[in-house]
Design goal:
TIM Barrel; 4-stranded parallel β-sheet; 13 strands; globular; Ado/ade_deaminase; metal ion binding; adenosine deaminase activity; hydrolase
Length: about 375
């Protein structure tokens, strides 16, 4: 693997950035450009810890690399503060789409919590409409440049508040206006999905897709609740599911593992794991296995047949891109292009699209990799 002067990575002579990618776990308030944060903060009269883009990017990276999800989440106080107007939300969403396209993403899902963007007087519906307008601006811009990208909204409720049913109803109201799924996010430990059972019950009656943050800062009970109470089709991170696997022996590339009931269910039902390698290191999600990327149970889960996908989580906080995450994994676990394609096919299969749309996406990925 070779890193070039433009920040791209080459594997077997192929640019990783040029490969078609699917992004399933990408937070809008974790993807702002530092320069945009500065400009929007200046317009709103908000003080920042740094006033030039490079220094602000370094500040976010330093504060995010704490080993604690709670501390990691505090950096979002700044990004959400500059996303309180329709104009700000529209701009951030447009730039989000443009940045995904520059990263080689052909289909993405952006998750964000409308309830955190009402301080400027917007209603929940107006906030969703502003983000959708920005998404469409970005899609049109990429189309005009000869590219193609599609992005859907994952409307998210904060798990430590009591608005999840209201947000679920909001998501369903906008299912024909860009909303493709529902999520809960925020501090995981102490706020299980079961607290939001009414919202999940409602979504089930509406046949509306659900992904749930689980198995990041909390363990197997959180994952179990996401599946039982949340009827989750995907697990946001889900990395701690690996603690339900008992590695009996290793011999070279051969690993003998005993599955727990939960991990076997997730594997056999092909429930998508939205893994985010760099973020998982920053938040301490893999502390049970080690402190380096090579310690991440990603490869174990992959080799055992779990539906693993690669995601950025928060581009700003982790200083990353999907291209970089794939390259880091390739270096850590000696993956080749066939492996990288497998991750994209898993993501396409887990996307909140119709069967026909997923099949088209799978064909697009196969053509782009052309292995």
């Amino acid at each position: 693997m070779i890193l070039d002067a433009h920040g791209d990575y080459t594997i077997d002579g192929v640019s990783v950035r040029s490969l078609p990618k699917v992004s399933l776990h990408d937070h809008l308030d974790g993807a702002l450009r530092p320069a945009t944060v500065i400009e929007l903060a200046d317009e709103a009269g908000i003080d920042l810890p740094e006033t030039d883009a490079a220094s602000l990017a370094d500040w976010f990276a330093e504060r995010s690399d704490s080993g604690s999800l709670v501390e990691y989440l505090k950096t979002f106080d700044i990004t959400t503060s500059v996303m309180q107007t329709a104009e700000g939300l529209r701009r951030v969403a447009r730039e989000f789409v443009e940045d995904l396209a520059a990263d080689g993403v052909v289909y993405g899902e952006v998750r964000w919590a409308p309830e955190q963007h009402l301080a400027g007087g917007l209603t929940l519906d107006e906030a969703v409409e502003a983000v959708q307008a920005g998404i469409e601006d970005g899609e049109d811009s990429i189309d005009a440049d000869g590219g193609s990208i599609r992005v859907g909204q994952l409307i998210t409720a904060m798990r430590h508040t009591d608005r999840s049913l209201e947000i679920a109803e909001l998501a369903v109201r906008h299912r024909d206006g860009g909303a493709v799924g529902f999520d809960i996010a925020g501090p995981e430990d102490g706020f299980p999905p079961s607290r939001h059972r009414a919202a999940f019950d409602y979504l089930a009656t509406q046949f509306f897709p659900v992904t749930v943050h689980a198995g990041e800062a909390a363990g197997l009970d959180s994952i179990r609740s996401a599946l039982i109470d949340g009827r989750a089709l995907r697990l946001g991170h889900g990395v701690r599911l690996a603690s339900d696997l008992d590695v009996v022996s290793r011999s070279g590339d051969e690993v003998l593992v005993t599955f727990g009931d939960l991990s076997r269910w997730v594997r056999d039902r092909e429930i998508t794991l939205e893994l985010s390698p760099s973020s998982n290191l920053q938040t301490g999600a893999i502390e049970a296995w080690g402190e380096e990327l090579a310690d991440h149970p990603f490869d174990l889960l992959y080799q055992l047949g779990f539906s693993v996908t690669v995601n950025v989580d928060n581009r700003l906080q982790s200083g990353t891109s999907l291209t970089k995450e794939l390259a880091l994994l390739a270096r850590a676990f000696d993956y080749d292009l066939e492996d990288l394609q497998a991750f994209q096919l898993n993501a396409a299969a887990g996307a909140f699209l119709t069967v026909e749309e997923r099949e088209e996406l799978i064909e697009l990925i196969a053509e782009g990799f052309d292995l």
